[in-house]
Amino acid sequence: MGIMYVFGSKPTSVCGAYFRNNEWWWGIMAEYFIMVAPEKCAPCGEWFIADGDGLDAAAAVALAEALQKEVDSGRTETFAQEREATMPMRDEECHACGGTGWRPPGAPRVVDYVRPRTRLYPFSTENVVNFIAFLRDSGGFAIGCLKRC
Q1: Are 141 and 118 in contact (CB under 8 A)?
Q2: Complete DSSP assignment for 38-58
Q3: I want to staple 9 with a disulfide (CB 3.0 to 4.6 A). Which of 16, 33, 87, 140 is the partner?
Q4: Taking the model in full, what pTM does it have?
């Protein structure tokens, strides 16, 4: 599992210097941003690859404002709750062993059941709020650029 680092271009605080999530948290959150504020996200280009794409300072603040409206309206929390409510709660039978707990002869023992893949992608309003704080103080940002872009 990789980490998505988002670096502030001209941070005005420690909060704006960088933001990070593992790729599972980042992916669903970025999908949410694109869903609720597509016009604000479009200039970034690529949200899912750590190749230095990002937003300038004005666009980062504009995205922060759009996301803050979503949070303030309760829509972000509703999204989080509805997403949680529709996720499978039970583990699924392991596709590798068919639920037997054994792989083909000679292969090591594996678990009988696995966590449904969708449950590996968590989403929370708190994570969005933390990203909003980053956006406000970032001075623009670059996703995964190891030096200030």
Answers
A1: no
A2: HHHHGGG--SSS-SS-EEEHH
A3: 140
A4: 0.79
